[in-house]
Amino acid sequence: MNELIRINESDSVAVALHALSEGSSVPVTGAGFSLEVRENIPMGHKVALHDIHKGDPIIKYGFPIGSAVSEIPAGHHVHTQNTHTLLEGAHEYEYHPTHPVIPSSAPGTFSGYLRKDGRAGVRNELWIIPTVGCVNDIALSLEHEARQFIGGNIENVRAFTHPYGCSQMADDQENTRKILADIATHPNAGGVLILGLGCENSGIDTIKPYMGDFDSERIRFLVSQDFGDEHEEGMKILRELAGIMKGDERVPCPTSKLIVGLKCGGSDGLSGITANPTIGSFSDILISQGGSTILTEVPEMFGAETILMNRCKDEATYKKTVNLINGFKNYYASFGLPVFENPSPGNKAGGITTLEDKALGCTQKSGTAPVNDVLAYSEKVSVQGLNLLSAPGNDLIASTALAAAGAQIVLFSTGRGTPFGCPVPTVKISSNSDLASRKSNWIDFNAGTLVDGGTIPEKGRELFEFVLSVANGAKTRNELNGFQGMAIFKTGATL
Asked: Is the pTM of this model over 0.90?
């Protein structure tokens, strides 16, 4: 059984794959020698492979994850008590392209709903989208009654409530308008009722231009103040939409039409060894077949950003990536906040020490493909392949941004577990088998079995087949639990 792994031959630390006891002598996988453990080491945590002196860089994944603030003898625990981040503010970067290539392969197929604009949905759901938080309760009431329409090819009825749509200014208001328009035109929705109040800043007439050339048969509008009984009028519209949707059928679609979002949350020390590299392998497979993936959580790229920059397809994309990274660093600086206010308490408990440590594990989800485009928050995918998306690390905000960018499915790796779901099926991938066993009601796919055998490519192929089953209609845990919602990035003052 593997117990301790050195990820890269230049690493000065190894990661405990299981809890290790003080005084034990443990073979180090990837190093060819055994190490005497001088302290109890929890699963996912790091141990020094040799004496690390004060001020020395601590190397993991082949890159510095911080520096030692004290002497760390071989065999001792390397964590927050003796390590400090090296991260600072905005940087000047240099482009050193690595020119990665993903060999193309013939697209597979999945059974999806082909929409009028050529996109494919993996669900056929009836959605109610409030333009403003004032009508949230009306939306929920309509959702409750309209659930009578579920059945056959109408797979679900859902209201996406939120607190915004009024009392906003500048970019903050623009974000809300764009996200609502993106969600309203998502291919997983076979019918949409956009529900307004009538006096809000981001009302229906304001949002319509953001929606582009939308399908007016499938997307309807209701201004609540214009009707004596808005609920009755809303049900009339939803009934008409349901009648249209009943004729929808799944048809064979090429995997080149799949867009999958990549996200992690509640990471632990095994996330960058099992779950995230598995997602990266999946990403490479999908991209080889002409599909697309989206990597977000910009703050969790800090410390690993040069890896992504050097994989950019050209200098123009590289410059967009530099602006993406420095833009978020300047965003934090504008509030007087440090760029490294991360990892979370749960991350630290799971063995992640610094933001660099987290970022180097997080970016494993991107696989080895070139970065083909960089998207602003609320921008949709237009270039096939790997895309970077501007969004914060917050789980629901970032996952909603992935859905708004066009992802029909989001892959969410976790070492701690979480029940939530975003507007699209949200596949939870555990980094360790203990979590998969304890929280089987949350977890869809266990990558933790890699600790005891198997390869990343094998696990990536297994995940690819699982994702195809979800695209074909298999329900994720969050769908079965009825846990789905959305959140919009708040960026300014409230009136």
From this structure: yes
